[in-house]
Amino acid sequence: xxxxxxxxxxxxxxxxxxxxxxxxxxxxxxxxxxxxxxxxxxxxxxxxxxxxxxxxxxxxxxxxxxxxxxxxxxxxxxxxxxxxxxxxxxxxxxxxxxxxxxxxxxxxxxxxx
Length: 113
Prior knowledge:
Elements: E1 12-14, E2 17-21, E3 31-37, E4 42-47, E5 52-59, E6 62-66, E7 69-73, E8 78-82, E9 86-90, E10 97-104
C-alpha cells in the first residue's frame, strides 16, 4: 500500500497547463494526473502514443477533437483515446477546466501530456 497525498503532488507548468502527477510510485503500469486547462488554452492535435489515454472532465466544459470528430464534454464525461488516434482539445468556455488523465503505460521522460 502506498498513499500519495494531493498536497504532496507539486504542480508544474506544461505549456499553458498546470499539471499534478497523482500516481503513487508503486503504480508502475500507468498513471493518473490532474490537468488544469485555463480559459482559451488549447492542446494542439497530436497522435496518442499510449495504449490507453482517458480524460475525465471534473469541472468545466471542454471541446475535444478525436479521430476527426468533435465532442463537447462536461463534468463526469470520459473520453478514451487509443494508440494511434489523433486528438486535441480546446477550452473555449467561461471557466478553467479540471481534467483527470489516466495513461497506460505510465509516463516516460520527457512526458508529453
